[in-house]
Design goal:
Layout lengths: L10 H43 L3 E2 L10 H5 L5 E8 L5 E8 L2 E13 L2 E11 H4 L14 E10 L18 E2 L4 H5 L6 E12 L20 H37 L1
Parallel strand pairs: 1-2, 3-7, 5-8
Antiparallel strand pairs: 2-4, 2-6, 3-4, 4-5, 6-8
Length: 260
C-alpha cells in the first residue's frame, strides 16, 4: 500500500515541519558550540603547559605601563620575576574569592620597580576573617625594603554579565575583580597592565596567614560528551521525524481504504 503524504501539506503540519527543522539546526549548532569550547580549553591547557616550562624573565623587560591590554594578554601565565619595594599603603583586596573551600580575598599590593613603573603583585589569598581586619592586611604585611618576587603573569579580569562593578569614585580598598585599569587610577606610580601572581618572595612575608594562589589547572570539562549528545539528538530528530511522517501517511491511507 502506498503512503499518502497529502496531509503533510496542511498548515498545521507545515508549521511542525519548520519547528522540527529549526530544532535540528539549533541542536547541531549547540554541538559545534560545545566543540568550540572544547578547543578553547585545549588551547588554554596547551598554553599553560608550555608557559610553565619556560624560564623566568624580568617582568619589566616584557611589559610597561603604556602597553595596551590586548598586548598584555599575550603574556598570560609567563614565568616572571620582579624586584622592587612594596607600596603597602596602596594595597587592595579582591573580594568573593574561594580557596581550599574557604571564602576570602586576594591580597594585591603594588610593587614599585622604578620611579615610573609598578606592577600589581597578587601576593596570595587570605580567609574572610583575616581580610576583614582591614587594608593593608595586618596579619599579612609585606616586608619593608627591597624584595625579589617570582611568579607568573595574570591579565586583567573582564567584567562578566553578572559581575559586580568597580566603577565607583574615590580610592577603593576592595574590588569585585582584578581590574588593573581601575587600580591604576589610584596607584601613585604608573602601573603595568598585567599582574604578577607570586609563587615565591625574598624576604618572605611573616606568618602563615597568606596562602599562595595556585596556577589554573587544565580542565577540558564535559564538552566532548555534551557535543555528542547534541549531535545524537539532532540525528534522532532528523531520522525519526521522516519515519513518523511515513507512519502517519500509511495510517491515513489504511483508514481511507477502510472507510471506502
Amino acid at each position: 500500500m502506498t503512503a499518502d503524504y497529502r496531509f503533510a501539506r496542511r498548515p498545521w503540519w507545515i508549521v511542525l515541519h519548520v519547528l522540527v527543522l529549526v530544532a535540528v539546526l539549533v541542536m547541531v549548532r549547540l554541538g559545534f558550540w560545545q566543540l568550540d569550547r572544547l578547543h578553547e580549553k585545549q588551547d588554554l591547557a596547551d598554553t599553560l603547559a608550555a608557559r610553565e616550562r619556560e624560564p623566568s624573565v624580568a617582568i619589566d623587560t616584557l611589559v610597561e605601563p603604556a602597553d595596551s591590554t590586548e598586548a598584555a594578554d599575550e603574556l598570560s601565565y609567563r614565568n616572571v620575576t620582579a624586584t622592587g619595594e612594596y607600596l603597602a599603603d596602596e594595597e587592595v583586596l579582591i573580594a568573593n574569592r574561594t580557596q581550599g573551600g574557604l571564602p576570602g580575598y586576594w591580597v594585591v599590593t603594588p610593587l614599585r620597580l622604578s620611579g615610573d613603573e609598578a606592577v600589581a603583585v597578587l601576593r596570595g589569598f587570605v580567609p574572610l576573617a583575616v581580610g576583614d581586619e582591614g587594608v593593608p592586611v595586618p596579619a599579612a604585611a609585606p616586608p619593608a625594603g627591597p624584595v625579589s618576587v617570582t611568579g607568573w603573569v595574570q591579565s586583567t579580569a573582564e567584567r562578566g554579565l553578572l559581575g559586580g562593578s568597580d566603577d565607583r569614585p574615590g580610592t577603593l580598598e576592595r574590588y569585585n575583580r582584578l581590574d588593573l585599569e581601575r587600580l591604576a587610577e589610584q596607584v601613585s606610580v604608573p602601573l603595568d597592565p598585567v599582574a604578577l601572581v607570586a609563587t615565591g618572595q625574598e624576604p618572605a612575608t611573616d606568618g602563615d596567614a597568606l596562602q599562595e594562589v595556585p596556577r589554573p589547572e587544565p580542565d577540558l570539562g564535559p564538552h566532548a560528551g555534551y557535543a555528542g549528545q547534541w549531535f545524537l539528538f539532532a540525528l534522532v530528530f532528523a531520522v525519526g521525524y521522516p519515519l513518523f511522517l511515513r507512519r502517519q501517511a500509511r495510517s491515513g491511507r489504511r483508514e481511507g481504504a477502510t472507510d471506502g
